[in-house]
Fold this sequence. Notes:
- By secondary structure, the chain is of the alpha/beta class.
- It is 36% helix and 27% strand.
- The strands form two sheets. The chain has a four-stranded antiparallel beta sheet.
- Helix 5 (128-142) crosses helix 6 (159-171).
- The radius of gyration is 18 Å and the shape is globular.
- The two termini are 19 Å apart.
Amino acid sequence: ADADGPVLLRVEDLDVRFPVTTPVGRSTVHAVKDLSFQIRRGTTLGLVGESGSGKSTVAAALTGLVEPDAGSASLDGIDVLDVHGREEKALRRRISLVFQDPFSSLNPRTRAGTAIAEPLRVHRLTKGRQARRKRVDELLELVGLSASFASRYPHELSGGQRQRVSIARALATEPDLLISDESTASLDVSVQSRVLDLLSDLQRDLQLTYLFIGHDLAV
Ligand code: ADP
Ligand code: MG
């Protein structure tokens, strides 16, 4: 990757607090405090810290799931934190998130193919059923799974296969930035290293930019 290339994501002085109610009254958790970083296109930034240090909150803020109290974030110059309507939909496509636990991100009653097709439908990226099915097959192949996996339910997949389905789904919108929030943390070491290899191949082939969140510095 080009270490002097253009900056894709720029975060400045990000601050997130959560109001909490405790038995002794109200208080706030200061989850993210004055965080600044930037990621150049096609590169990976590792965000490592112990549990509770605010890593997932950063991911949530960048994907519109929580509203920060202060700071700014921009993707290719587009304000990520204050974006609405059609522009928001276009932006959300460009930032994908893969979570640690595919059991909570994949609906147990939804077949893998349907889960991967959902973002294609929501963002109207394919015309008609046949085109959608073809694209789902392509995405499965991209993550090293055969097309037959489309009809499987999450419980019919191994941990590594589930994570591959989550990655395929995250790639469906052809994002620029992929945020991996401990995506390999629950996998056995050998499976983990194969998923990491996949992520690294995908980065090279699709020129992806990664915000890679983890608690294990070695990973
Ligand atoms: P990490 O991902 O590094 O483990 P988190 O970002 O999940 O950390 O959490 C950071 C802190 O913010 C923790 O103290 C957590 O309990 C708190 N927190 C996270 N989300 C919420 C929420 N929705 N409401 C209240 N507190 C929260
Ligand atoms: Mg977390």
